[in-house]
């Protein structure tokens, strides 16, 4: 996360007074909450390390995809700063396109997402991987899944601010053909015959051989 104070404080005392704290970019989150979480108040004596700590505290909330602290003015008395944020979207409706072999209800159960929750950074990517795992368990190791965020068509709240950052999440799925094992060959087996090993493999559940191949198809 970029901080604007790395170079600024190279030529100033180790502690400097905050004269003013403004907030920009927030849509739903209040200025008061951002200032409180950052713990940067007018009159505080701060050092460069305090700004890094402020960003970390705000980042832990999971409500922002970008956080910056901008230096607006520097005088002998102190500095004026602005906390600039970009909020993570609020989840609206979830839908699926292209799934024929796996039902919507199965996909929704795997995702464990709830309308109204925050979509934290990297969460959508993680959910795509979970859906690919589900498809692989069903034998569709070649399934392709992409996501799309679009402006929500319907929102429970009448608050225009919430409507502004609420996004519908669409998963576009291309299931492709089901992967089947055509033939199994053994090499180097001395203690057991091919026939005996084939009997063991035949009784092995699908999940077992899937785990063996998963790392290959994820690359």
Automatic annotation (TrEMBL):
Predominant cellular place of this UniProt entry's protein: membrane
One GO term describing the cellular component: outer membrane
Residue ranges of every copy of the POTRA domain listed in the record: 16-88, 89-176
Pfam families per the UniProt record, alphabetical: POTRA
Compartment(s) where it occurs, according to its Swiss-Prot or TrEMBL record: Membrane
InterPro entries, per the entry: BamA/TamA_POTRA, POTRA
Keywords on record: Membrane
Protein name: POTRA domain-containing protein
Organism of provenance: marine metagenome
Source species taxonomy: unclassified sequences, metagenomes, ecological metagenomes
